[in-house]
Design a protein that fits this description.
Structural class of chain B: alpha+beta
Distance between the termini of chain B: 27 Å
Mean pLDDT of chain B: 95
Low-confidence stretches of chain A: none
Low-confidence stretches of chain B: none
Strand content of chain B: 25-35%
Number of strands of chain A: 51
Number of helices of chain B: 2
CATH class of chain B: Alpha Beta
CATH architecture of chain B: 2-Layer Sandwich
CATH topology of chain B: Folate-binding fold
Strand content of chain A: 25-35%
CATH topology of the largest domain in chain A: FAD/NAD(P)-binding domain
Helix content of chain A: 10-25%
Oligomer: heterodimer
Mean pLDDT of chain A: 94
Order of helices and strands of chain B: EEEHEEEH
CATH superfamily of the largest domain in chain A: FAD/NAD(P)-binding domain
Radius of gyration of chain A: 37 Å
Largest sheet of chain B: 4 strands, antiparallel
Structural class of chain A: alpha+beta
Chain lengths: 1003, 107
């Protein structure tokens, strides 16, 4: 059994006991524990179930590479699924629960999948997709849905908050092991601005656990001194608990800092996302140990050799009373020696025929039994290890001996963590002698100037021993510093006592000639249940690309992204294909290195401040009146102002009727307003709009259309001419920024010799529409300028004063009523609005919102960009030929509209629809045509683009596009229903439903 | 997250400040052009693995459009220059040719 040892534990505080729970069971740990070490100290070997077969699973690793031990942490608003116990720091009151089992961890019905394993081979999902179809729907999908899936999503909103911070540095160092710290000393001495990020809460990495001696002192002392020296440097910043998740183009780096994971609810942000701009990056990210592939290597109690050492040295937790260490390299002997020195029983199974290094000799001297040339044939046990059968590594799996044990520590060698090197395109080279991929210095990821962006060093660069890592760190850090044009200076290079290590023997399958029985119990990917036999099956079925095999077998596709499995998997694939490992290659390394919580990526951008909010000057007034707001682009606009007891529909109808009968007030401030000025402004606007704007008289208004170069209608609005060389273009509310950018694009990139200036003044003015038969009465009452028909005719504007406010009054109408749109400086807009509101009461004034605006315009057949247009509609489709100049040689979109399909006679064109039964036809409904298309769907001949209940007509009205529509007035057509079939019949009519001659607006 | 130096204001702008505008040095074809010319102008875009000339706007900075030459594979930036030109500056072309002897040229 695993247990807490009586002495030792460099990271724990035995005086600080902590209570925590696992699956409701109360347990005790110590300050400094990870959840993993605390669970092991309580002999909780079984911590989860695998994804596919629901096999019992225990803790394999001691760091972020852990594939098995994912738990749900916390409850309620602090519940978080899929958290790795190995990176979770223990705190008092922590609650955790295992995942992916039913009904319980100990007894899981899904484990029947394990018995059915031969029916669930590689590519199982894809095979079930093929045939028979009914089997997928009724058999496979329900079973898979119930039995698969890891943690459950949280049900409550996250109680924590998260934040962003921005880092700027010359050199970013990822990793605070001895190599990272040595590199920081070199970089710091150069005067460069250095940021060092370490993913764990502790500095120094593996060296203190491995017992390395640096500069004649234990590694821990050197680490402490190095940290002191770095802390004294003003140009160096050190952050622990900060995981570099990705390196992106030109030195953009993302990192996640865990601030309050271990102190929940203390008021600090839970996590902080670092957005870093680094001139260059040092990857001192270490290496990960690989498992060995032997039968039963997934049984709880089997873990990585270095992890076993970590638990013993860091947390005083023994993996078992008798540990079998199985290895193909010398490093695992450190584990054997460590456990032996703690007084535990150890047996070493070494696949190599004759290990000769310094470490095996030391182990022998300690009296540790070492079996050479042997491997584990299989591990015995179910929910925990009870023993191993051993035999010849070179054999087929004949067992020569059974050894009773309660823990297995395996080491298949080490793989440098090359992720940060590879994220931006750094290439790898296969080091056959040491059986590892390491960065190829000749093919680095590039910075903006073509120089190397990332400098790998230490174990991440393949320098696996302490002395090699420190030498490499100095050398590479100097190169990094020099690449910035700085002087590397004379930072002291630390020297570690060399430990002579024997050569590794690459072992990808143990034993080498194992049969299918054993190979189908050799796990490569623990989380996704991919075995040696699955990869070999994929190879037999014709998968030769490692990227395809990955997706077919799901190897490396779990939340650990193959940190343990990828190299073993591709070696097995290479073997099955009789290829060299480097020819098979690796899959692509993509960020993040380990998962980053969505909360950290969102930062503060959630709830009301999810995106920028634009408010008109009258925004708070609308809210005070109880307006129901709707988003229009980034603006918030009143949809309607419901009164007590009113539905929104009733409120909209009331507002529409009141505007038509008496007087309505609309906040139109969001309307885009762009000034276009200069000697060539008229010429420019003639290119921009489909009609002519250069001949518009000063003081006049003209409706205009803008198209993109393809000819499709893009925006519309009223243009006014303020002075001989100055126009003001009104755009749609959502289109102002886009149209301004469009103008600038043409002026800067195509017609740069034209003398034109533009200014987007949308937010500089409030705009208020005073609409209805009583509109003039109100303006005459507050007084200040002549607003009579004679002084201010329809489609003109005038600058002046109303009620003491400086105003520009436009006689334009989007409702068909007598209407004044009044622009007023934004700072005066609210006061002017309030004046209109109070003085208008005697004329029956009511405010109306965007929905009322829509109904009013639809009754008049006015189009709305985004309703009648969708990027495939040309102005001619909307019968707007009158607004397209025939005389102009050129305007944006003219050539596009000449294309045969757009110039064809038989297009869907704008008409009105009156439903026969008076109902409102569903938006987007298709007008059905005879027959079906090649896919068996009903043919369509048109569709609804706007549809409303019309209070004026007291029935449903709609606008829409219909094949040759204007020629089909009076015809009755049918529409699709949301549920299929036919929903409504309607008569094709003129889209102008109300006041066809425009008499009401022109008074 | 590219960094491009805006030739108008001199700021070394991060991609979050910039808006992309697609291929640079397109020739506009309007009324009177053939279907082939218009199609090429409207739709035919280069998609090289290597040297590419692009339009960028310093949208959250000075607001100016500029042009950039960069390698789409390695993200190396060869240079940026003002948008008011119909072809890349000669010294930029010389610089790219020096760095990429196999480069076939910008047209």
């Amino acid at each position: 059994m695993s247990a807490r040892l009586q002495k030792g534990g460099r990271l724990i505080d035995r005086s600080a006991r902590m209570e925590f729970s696992f699956n409701g069971k109360k347990m005790q740990g110590l300050r400094g524990d990870t959840l993993a070490s605390a669970l092991l100290a309580n002999d909780q070997l079984l911590v989860g179930r695998s994804f596919k077969y629901h096999r019992p699973r225990g803790i394999v690793a001691s760091g972020p590479e852990e594939p098995n031990a994912l738990v749900a942490l916390g409850t309620g608003a602090r519940y978080e699924p899929n958290q790795r116990v190995t990176t979770t720091e223990l705190f008092d009151g922590l609650t955790s629960a295992s995942q992916n089992h039913w009904p319980s961890l100990e007894f899981d019905i899904g484990a029947v999948n394990n018995k059915l394993a031969r029916f669930l081979p590689a590519g199982f999902y894809y095979k079930t997709f093929i045939h028979p179809r009914s089997a997928w729907k009724h058999l496979f999908e329900p079973v898979i849905r119930r039995s698969a899936g890891l943690g459950k999503p949280p049900e409550e909103a996250d109680a924590d908050h998260y934040e962003y911070t921005y880092g700027h540095c010359d050199i970013l160092i990822a990793g605070g092991g001895i190599a990272g710290l040595q590199a920081a000393l070199v970089a710091g001495a150069s005067g460069a601005k250095v940021l060092v990020l370490e993913q764990t809460a502790h500095w120094g990495g593996r060296a203190p656990v491995d017992g390395d001696i640096i500069d004649g002192k234990p590694a821990e002392d050197w680490v402490r001194n190095a940290l002191q020296a770095l802390e004294a440097m003003e140009n160096v910043t050190l952050r622990a608990r900060s995981m570099v998740s990705g390196v992106y183009d030109h030195g953009y780096v993302l990192a996640e800092e865990r601030i309050a994971d271990h102190t929940p609810g203390d008021g600090r942000p839970r996590k902080r996302l670092w957005r870093i701009r680094a001139a260059t990056v040092i990857a001192a990210t270490g290496a990960l140990e690989r498992p060995l592939s032997f039968a039963g290597n997934d049984i709880p109690g089997v873990m990585l050799a270095a992890a076993a050492r970590d638990y013993a040295v860091n947390f005083a937790v023994s993996p078992g009373e008798h540990t079998v260490v199985v290895t193909n390299n010398d490093d695992a002997y450190r584990t054997a020696i460590t456990l032996k020195e703690y007084g535990l029983q150890v047996t070493v199974i070494d696949a190599r025929p004759a290990p000769v290094g310094e470490l095996p000799s030391r182990a022998r001297a300690l009296g540790i039994r070492i079996e050479t040339g042997r491997g584990i044939i299989k591990v015995k046990g179910g929910k925990r290890v009870t023993g191993v059968s051993i035999g010849l590594q070179a054999g087929e799996g004949g067992a020569v001996e059974d050894i009773a044990c309660d823990a297995v520590a395996m080491s298949g060698g080490w793989s440098p963590v090359v992720h940060l090197w590879s994220h931006c395109g750094g290439k790898l080279v296969w080091d056959a002698d040491r059986a590892l991929f390491r960065p190829d210095a000749a093919r680095p990821p590039l910075n903006h100037d073509g120089s190397a962006l990332v400098w790998p060093l230490g174990a991440a660069n393949g320098a696996l021993t302490a002395d090699a890592a420190l030498r490499d760190a100095v050398e590479q850090a100097r190169l990094a510093v020099q690449s910035l044009g700085l002087d590397a200076g004379a930072a002291e290079a630390a020297i570690a006592d060399p430990v002579e290590e024997g050569a590794i023997l690459p072992v990808w399958i143990m034993p080498a000639s194992a049969g299918i029985e054993l190979k189908s119990k050799m796990w490569l990917d623990f989380q996704n249940d991919v075995k040696v036999s699955d990869v070999q099956l994929a190879a037999r079925e014709g998968y030769v690309s490692v990227e395809h095999t990955k997706r077919y077998t799901t190897l490396g596709m779990a939340t650990d992204q193959g940190k343990l499995s990828n190299i073993n998997g591709l070696a097995v694939l290479a073997d099955a294909l009789s290829e060299e490992i480097p020819r098979v290659g690796t899959t692509t390394f993509r960020p993040p290195y380990t998962p980053v919580t969505i909360g950290a990526l969102a930062g503060e951008a959630r709830g009301d401040i999810f995106q920028p909010l634009r408010k008109t000057p009258m925004h708070d007034w609308h809210l005070a009146q109880g307006a129901y707001m709707e988003p229009v682009g980034l603006w918030q606009r009143p949809y309607t102002y419901p009164r007590a007891g009113e539905t929104h529909e009733q409120a909209v109808n009331r507002e529409v009727v009141n505007t038509r009968d008496r007087l309505g007030l609309l906040d139109a401030s969001t309307l885009g307003k762009i000034i276009v000025k200069g000697p060539d402004a008229g010429k420019f606007l003639d290119m921009l709009y489909t009609n002519v704007m250069s001949n518009l008289g000063v003081g006049k208004c003209r409706y205009g259309l803008m198209c993109n170069e393809q000819g499709f209608l893009s925006d519309d609005g009223v243009v006014i001419r303020i002075a001989e060389d100055t126009w003001l273009c009104h755009t749609t509310s959502g289109g102002a920024d886009r149209i301004h950018a469009w103008m600038e694009d043409w002026l800067q990139c195509e017609w740069w010799d034209w003398q034109v200036y533009t200014a987007n003044v949308t937010e500089q003015y409030g705009q208020i529409a005073v609409v209805g038969p009583n509109a003039r009465k109100l303006l005459e009452k507050i007084g200040g300028m002549d607003v009579s028909k004679e002084a201010l005719p329809f489609m003109t504007f005038k600058d002046g004063e109303l009620g003491g406010f400086p105003v520009r009054v436009h006689r334009i109408s989007f409702s068909g009523e007598l209407s004044y749109e009044i622009a007023v400086p934004a700072s005066h807009a609210l006061a002017f609005w309030e004046l209109l509101y109070s003085e208008g009461q005697e004329f029956g004034l009511q405010t109306y919102g965007t929905e009322g605006l829509h109904v009013l315009r639809a009754e008049k057949g006015f189009i709305m960009i985004g309703d009648e247009t969708d990027g495939t509609v040309i102005p001619q489709d909307l019968n707007l030929d009158w607004a397209i100049s025939k005389k102009k040689e050129d305007f944006l979109g003219k050539r596009g509209q000449q294309r045969t399909f757009l110039a064809a006679k038989d297009r869907w064109k704008l008409v009105g629809f009156e439903s026969l039964d008076g109902s409102v036809i569903p938006d987007g409904a298709y007008v059905i045509a005879a027959g079906t298309n090649e896919y068996g769907f009903r043919n369509a001949q048109g569709r609804i683009t706007s549809t409303y209940y019309s209070p004026a007509l007291k029935k449903g009205i709609a606008m829409g596009l219909l094949l040759n529509g204007p020629a089909r007035m009076g015809e009755v057509v049918e529409f699709t229903a949301m549920t299929g079939g036919v929903s409504a019949q309607a008569k094709v009519v003129d889209p102008v439903f109300y006041d066809k001659d425009g008499e009401k607006q022109n008074v | 997250m590219l960094i491009l130096e805006c030739p108008c204001c001199g700021v070394k702008a991060e991609e979050t400040e910039l808006a992309p505008g697609g291929e640079a040095h397109l020739k506009r074809f309007g009324p009177g052009s053939s279907d082939e010319e218009f199609e090429a102008y409207m739709f035919a875009r280069k998609n090289p693995k290597g040297v590419h000339f692009e339009r960028w706007r310093h949208a959250y900075g000075c607001g100016k459009w500029f042009l950039a030459a960069r390698c789409t594979a390695t993200l190396e930036v060869f240079g940026t220059y003002p948008a008011q030109t119909t072809e890349p500056p000669a010294e930029l072309i010389a610089k790219i040719k020096a760095k990429r002897p196999d480069w076939k040229g910008w047209k």
